[in-house]
Here is the input.
Amino acid sequence: MRNRTTWARTAAAILLAGGGLLAATPAHAATTCSGSACDGKDPAVYCQGDARTVESVRLGQALLELRYSPSCRAAWGRISNAGYDTRDQFTPYATVHRNSDGREYSCSVATDGTGCYTRMVNDANVTSYAKGMWDSGARIYEDRTASY
Here is the structure.
């Protein structure tokens, strides 16, 4: 009986581990894209795993970043620390711009939020930049990152 119990526990552990791997593989495969297949997709769903900030610029207290995923070969814009007062300040935003054809995606910071990120643009063999705006109440900051 002891051997059966040990074997059953071992088999259950293998099935759980294997099942976890099998379950993770299709989900991972379904949430990847590369190059032009990434256009307009959500980076948090598809390409966040190896994302890095490749360019950034300060907009007052806000930070505007151009994010890039080498595995997806895609870029997006992100603005953070961009809280604002809806009574007297403009809504902060970030935009990613692909230089080769002008394709852009933008996001606006929610009224109760402090940041947002854009959809992705294909960045394979082309360059892109992020641009954005943050209103401090006393001054409006607008700028763009370098291209990457």
The CA atoms of residues 62 and 81 lie 5 Å apart. The chain has two helices and nine strands.
